[in-house]
Amino acid sequence: MEHAVSQKAGVFGYAAPASESAPSIHARPYLGAIDGPALTGAQRETLTQLAARLRLPPRMLLYEEQSPARWLFMISQGAVKAFQDLPSGKRRIAAFLFPGDIFGLAEHGRYLNSTQTITPVTLYRIPLDTLTDVFTHDAALQLAFLGKVTHELREAQRRAIAVSRRDAAGRLAMFLVMLRDHLRRVEVDPDEIPLVMSRSDIADFLALTLEAVSRASTELERRRLIHFEGRHLVRVLDRRRLEKLAASL
Amino acid sequence: MEHAVSQKAGVFGYAAPASESAPSIHARPYLGAIDGPALTGAQRETLTQLAARLRLPPRMLLYEEQSPARWLFMISQGAVKAFQDLPSGKRRIAAFLFPGDIFGLAEHGRYLNSTQTITPVTLYRIPLDTLTDVFTHDAALQLAFLGKVTHELREAQRRAIAVSRRDAAGRLAMFLVMLRDHLRRVEVDPDEIPLVMSRSDIADFLALTLEAVSRASTELERRRLIHFEGRHLVRVLDRRRLEKLAASL
DNA sequence: CGCTACTTTGATATTTTTCAATCTTGGTGG
DNA sequence: CCACCAAGATTGAAAAATATCAAAGTAGCG
Known about the structure:
The structure is a homodimer.
Chain A: H1 41-50, E1 52-56, E2 61-63, E3 71-77, E4 80-85, E5 91-97, E6 102-103, E7 106-107, E8 110-111, E9 114-117, E10 121-127, H2 128-137, H3 139-163, H4 168-183, E11 192-194, H5 199-206, H6 210-222, E12 226-228, E13 233-236, H7 239-246
Helix pairs in contact in A: 2-3, 4-6, 4-7, 5-6
The first copy, chain A, binds a DNA duplex through helix 6.
């Protein structure tokens, strides 16, 4: 199993003009009393001053697992994958990341996953050392981050449940529904799901072989739940049954 | 598949004397610059005033999935399981929780998992509505929570990787190692792993049948990696090979 | 227009799930 | 103190589904 990387880490793309849009994070409500704390203008200002805005090409490795963690990243545009390469040669994708998502949380000062751009990406890069101070001085801003992290925790738990399914078709259905819901804040038509990642990325995410993903795709098409318009766009034909299958574990 | 519950939610055990020990949370370092922000004396004081200390019997249901989230919990002693019952009748255990662990994070004001005590448990119960204010006024305290939540996020990701394994023995080995590491802050001998939960709990956690867990246990014993001293205590016979197997995915 | 990477399809092998029955263990009560 | 009971755990045999190995088909890109 090969996982070639077209560009090495360490060198980042050129800086993008900071004017286009200020940093923003998306999160669902997470505690009973806290409803998705959106960033205030002042908070965005704070972050904008800290963050460098970068534009990166596709397939660029941002950082590697176990390397020293220096920055936190927030995606503005594009898609990123976070993954681990396992001793067996297999790869497990921990998450696909889209606009509004944060990544780069570390442990013992080192990143836990490798990350690589899938599409061209625009993102904000925030030095970790300054972030601690900011959080200490701006509790509300930190709260927004806390909400985001808890949201990601829930998604990780949901994914663990999805992966635990035995049937490939059900896993794929769950993936599609999760992806659609995750993208809903960006996409307009909920029955069109853009699949920016490859089949083998999906396989690595769902802990299936890419052959199994391919067969599951065929099966979902045969059952008239979805239709592939090209390899990177799924049209949902029967939303009700797709969701039913996704929830049927 | 039956999952009977001996006691219903809503009624909590009697309050325990608050003097025994103040609330504490355990977390690993999570950001490059932040090393496991332990609670200061003042912060413990703050929490102690907010929290009710409760003692609960074993097998008590604390709250059910989708019920309105009113409290956050911190375990002082004992073990709790967080789970979801799926439409198919299967059960997925999202996490086993031990002293120092926090649980009760919610979404849209509702709990995402059901939780039930496994052993007798002593815990702190903190009203969620007051917590938001506390976090806003005490950024350092919030930072400790943020660290804890990110730590749980990492554990969820690790579990997702463990569950994605195909081989039952490997999954069980991974579970044992994770459990041992999680308990290391409490337990002294790293080669004695107390298994407070039942085989079927382990099965629900690993997304295996309990038969498969049983067979995997037998296999690990046959291979002289572990030895069961009774059903609730595992002695690690060959730490090196056990860890190798756990990491061999 | 042709190459290369990605995807699909096919046949076999491996492993878990299922379904069933038996065995243990801890607790209860006579 | 011992026998009995029930829940939990183990073992066995067959069925189901994905992994594997192999080969052919597409599609995008230069």
